[in-house]
TrEMBL record:
Pfam families given in the database record: CarbopepD_reg_2 (PF13715), Plug (PF07715), TonB_dep_Rec_b-barrel (PF00593)
Main location: membrane
Domain TonB-dependent receptor plug residue range list: 118-224
Subcellular locations according to the entry: Cell outer membrane
Membrane-protein topology: Multi-pass membrane protein
Sequence ranges assigned to domain TonB-dependent receptor-like beta-barrel in this UniProt record: 369-892
Protein name: TonB-dependent receptor
Length: 921
């Protein structure tokens, strides 16, 4: 207690050596017009405010010793520094117009503030001006215009972003932070886009590091980092409201045009420059994009015989038709499935609520508590099409930060609520109505076999009134009694399966969470010889899915991991050369520890020409899902690669490769259709089968080299070019195997005829295993970005990226797939103030075609066609009303495009938005 009293007395005594200073003023531009919402901050302190609609402000300080410097800045204006020397000061600064800050301050590249021109690695940034003028329907959609950025749309409310290849619809190799908080869901282990992120009104900036960032940010930042920063209530006070309404599904053959709405509100207030709070709320609602590609992708049917009349048809976005059986004299037959539109909830929404309390302990130290609540519905393309229905994500964040340190703790929890797997759902509905030949509905466990018996009987001519040897007639007979979509029976069966979790239903249940603490300290002032930064983190996963995603009904899954890093920097040769070295050590309790170093050099010539080179490393621990998922999705079980996750299944030791099984089943089916008896067909083709050799999972590794050049020429032209080369080992991937009831190999070491017979008779189970790539691969890329400031405020920007994947001698079935177009380009053109408050912005994106591999199609390729799309907006600013009217559209030429095979085709969104933003002061 005595020590505490002494500390309080010491802190109070600090004010003895400082004076209360009151600064007032009016900020205007060079033409004499007031600048609203300009930031007025004390340099190197956490003290600041903003101007009101008339450009005036009042700032009270205490505990700051004279003289000190205040920094005044506004969107579209050059920063101005003013030294304060007297206790009462009135200032009238004039800010010079600068349409865009080409040399912005960035933080993510080194975890400390620095010029973007002198970043040691490639970095992209969207500042406030770019976010406000963004022509896309949401800020997050506009990220695709950044150099090297890739985007995949699974849903109206869910877009996934990535950089530098190996893209996926659920990207656990790319870290997304919102105010330093990992925005991933604990059960999925990746961020669901901006479904649970920040409101557009509250976003101050977004920074992207393309490529390996593990040296500073740990295992999730294997492929890159997106760091979103929200607005500080001390700097951004007042009320802001956005009302946005739009249309989509225009000229959509699947449905009529639909309305969508996006409402957002932000309010922030400060008290005596010591305490501040902010409240945010946003709500987006609309009709999701339809996944309605009914292409037959049956792996067991030759390509020239696929189509609507194929008895073994497996349509891409029809589910339930994956259940198949070889019928004597007929060949392979699939069950009749349901279209996705009858299974998925396309009425999607995103609700985001946020509240934060900020308290300045001193002028250098600030305490923050923040709570985020997100709830929404989205469609997600994984091994199936999943409906994340009424999914909830909550975060609690407590942070103490100063000018040279921070310590942050947060908790992220999820509740999957009514989420489900549409493929499993279709199969379970299909087992609720099947009748035997006497017209009696059979139990679900006998339904599939009974349906095939009905089909065989009708095809064989034993059913009166049914045309024999006719697959269409046989299917019609077998489908008698099938629940029609929308009927009471269909809806009852659907609802029962959605709320039935685990092996007996389609529901996905998760109440998982993780706890995270991280911090860093800048020791530069103490050390002085070098710039020195240290930090570390600890994370604890606590998973609970009650057996629906993991085998955790009785044994809860808990995983601890920690990491620590050190970064040192030194300037040489009159500060023209900056050398930086970083190293991080991370340890997951289930794997060996990993060191990830990074070395970089930046050399500045003639102040504006900056050459950089770096060696970067990345690693990724298998996520909890990678290790322990145990999910039955109908004909296939997804199984994590931790040894104790499959101890009683014998699947890693006793299975056939899917490629060999497909060849075997195709050959057997053709032979049976040609009249060969099934036992003979199986015996003749058994040697096509190959035993799978799948290792248990371990961390993946990356080594990357990058060189680049960045320059600002005559304050008009920004040039940014970079080349990278990356090598990957132990890449985590999925492989599909077939696990027969009998041993795969006989005593002679050859394929066991009994195991081959199991595949022919259906006595096997399909598994999708998590493992590592056995082969090494590499990737390289070249990017060029140009931004030019034309006279009168016009801005022209463009970038292009060449991405190249080198398979080398690797087997394409043994490595993670690149899923990235070879060429992609972006162009932007705009002006924030053409005349009389009018502004506009146009963004164009184009990319080449490529093959997409994903677990949705059991890693079989599907073509993503080349496409281009244009986003555009025009706006009118009404300063007296603090309002902006914005008319715009995403993909304005309404070309329906699919960005991942199996995901929906995305058309245009046309919208009208009103944004009211009124600073308090």
């Amino acid at each position: 207690m005595k020590k505490l009293l002494l500390l309080i007395m010491f802190m109070a005594s600090l004010n003895v050596f400082a004076q209360d200073v009151k600064i007032t003023g009016a900020v205007k531009d060079a033409a004499g017009n007031p600048v609203s919402n300009a930031s007025v901050n004390v340099k190197s302190k956490t003290v600041g405010t903003t101007t009101n609609s008339n450009g005036t402000f009042s700032l009270n300080t205490s505990g700051i010793k004279l003289p000190f410097t205040i920094v005044i800045s506004g969107i579209g204006y050059e920063q101005q520094d003013i030294v304060i020397t007297t206790p009462v000061t009135h200032i009238t600064p004039l800010l010079n117009v600068k349409t865009v800050m080409l040399n912005e301050v960035v933080t993510a590249a080194t975890r400390v503030n620095q010029s973007s021109l002198q970043s040691p690695v490639s970095i992209e940034k969207l500042g406030q001006r770019a976010i406000k003028e963004n022509p896309s329907f949401t800020f997050y959609d506009g990220l695709q215009s950044l150099k090297g950025m890739e985007a995949v749309t699974s849903s109206l409310t869910y877009k996934q972003v990535n950089t530098r290849g190996f893209n996926s619809t659920g990207n656990s190799r790319f870290l997304q932070l919102v105010d330093g908080v990992d925005n991933q869901t604990p059960g999925l282990n990746f961020s669901v886009g901006n479904l649970f992120g920040a409101s557009d009104l509250d976003i101050e900036s977004a920074e992207v590091i393309p490529g390996a960032a593990s040296a500073l940010y740990g295992p999730v930042a294997f492929n890159g980092l997106l760091s979103i920063k929200t607005k500080d209530p001390f700097k951004y006070e007042g009320l802001a409201v956005q009302v946005k309404s739009g249309l989509n599904h225009i000229n959509d053959l699947a449905t009529d045009s639909k309305h969508l709405h996006d409402f957002a509100l932000r309010y922030a207030k400060t008290f005596n420059n010591k305490f501040a709070f902010k409240l945010n709320g946003s709500y987006l609602r609309g009709t999701d994009w339809y996944a309605n590609d009914y292409t037959d992708i049956s792996a067991s049917t030759p390509a020239d015989k696929r189509g609507p009349n194929n008895p073994a048809r497996d349509a891409l976005n029809i589910y339930g038709d994956e259940v198949t059986k070889n019928l004597p004299g007929i060949g392979l037959v699939s069950r009749t499935g349901y279209e996705e539109k009858d299974l998925m909830n396309y009425d999607v929404y995103s609700l985001k609520l946020n509240g934060a309390l900020h308290y300045k302990v001193t002028n250098d130290v600030e305490a923050i508590y923040q709570y985020n609540y997100g709830r929404g519905t989205a469609s997600y393309t994984g091994s199936s099409r999943f409906d994340l229905n009424n999914f909830v994500l909550q975060t609690h964040r407590a942070e103490l930060k100063g000018s040279n340190f921070f310590i942050r703790s947060y908790m992220v929890s999820e509740n999957s609520h009514d989420s489900y797997n549409t493929r499993s759902l279709a199969q379970f509905i299909n087992r609720d109505w099947v009748q035997d030949l006497n017209g009696k509905v059979v139990s679900p466990d006998k339904a599939d076999a009974t349906w095939f018996d009905r089909y065989a009987a009708a095809f064989g001519g034993t059913i009166p009134g049914v045309t024999p040897n006719n697959n269409i007639a046989a299917r019609t007979f077998a489908d008698q009694g099938m629940f029609m979509p929308g009927s009471a029976e269909f809806n009852k069966s659907k609802d029962a399966s959605i709320h039935n979790y685990g092996l007996s239903g389609a529901g996905v249940f998760s109440n998982s969470k993780f706890y995270h603490t991280d911090g860093q300290y800048d020791l530069t002032k103490a050390v002085k010889v070098v710039e020195l930064l240290v930090g570390g983190s600890f994370r604890k996963y606590s998973m609970f899915t009650n057996g629906s995603l993991f085998d955790d009904k009785t044994n809860r899954i808990k995983i601890n991991e920690y990491g620590t890093f050190l970064q040192a920097g030194k300037k040489l040769f009159d500060d023209d050369l900056k050398l930086t070295a970083s190293i991080r050590y991370d340890k997951n309790e289930n794997f060996k520890g990993s060191f990830t170093p990074r070395f970089s050099a930046v050399y500045t010539v003639a102040k504006t020409h900056n050459f950089r080179a770096s060696y970067q490393t990345g690693f990724r621990n298998p996520t909890p899902v990678d290790q322990f998922i145990h999910l039955n999705v109908g004909p296939i079980t997804i199984l994590g690669g931790a040894p104790n996750n499959s101890a009683d299944l014998n699947v890693y030791q006793n299975s056939f490769t899917s490629a060999s099984a497909n060849a075997f089943q195709g050959a057997v089916g053709a032979a049976i259709a040609g009249g060969t008896p099934p036992p003979t067909a199986i015996a003749q083709n058994k040697d096509l089968l190959i035993k799978a050799n799948v290792p248990y999972i371990r961390p993946e590794q990356q080594k990357a080299f990058e060189v680049g050049y960045k320059s600002l020429i005559n304050d008009k032209l920004l040039v940014d070019v970079n080349y990278y080369y990356s090598k990957y080992t132990n890449f985590i991937l999925n492989t599909v195997v077939l696990n027969p009831n009998s041993p795969v190999l006989g005593a002679d070491g050859k394929v066991n005829p009994a195991a081959a017979g199991d595949l022919g008779s259906g006595n096997f189970h399909l598994y999708q295993l998590y493992t590592n790539a056995t082969d090494k691969v590499s990737a390289q890329g070249l990017s060029l970005g140009l931004t030019y400031l034309i006279n009168k405020g016009y801005i022209l920007g463009g970038n292009g990226t060449l991405s190249s994947f080198n398979l080398g001698s690797a087997n394409i079935n043994n490595i993670a797939q690149y899923n990235t177009p070879r060429y992609s380009t972006n162009m932007t053109f705009g002006n924030a103030n053409v005349a009389e408050g009018f502004g506009f912005d146009v963004a164009w994106h184009w990319q080449t075609a490529f093959d997409w591999y994903g677990t949705f199609t059991s890693t079989r390729p599907g073509r993503v066609q080349a496409y281009s799309m244009v986003d555009a907006q025009i706006n009118k600013k009404i300063p007296k009303a603090n309002t902006t009217i914005k008319l715009g559209g995403s993909n304005i030429f309404n070309k329906y495009i699919s960005q991942a095979y199996g995901s929906p085709a995305v058309g245009a969104i046309y919208y009208l938005a009103l944004v009211f933003d009124s600073p308090l002061k």
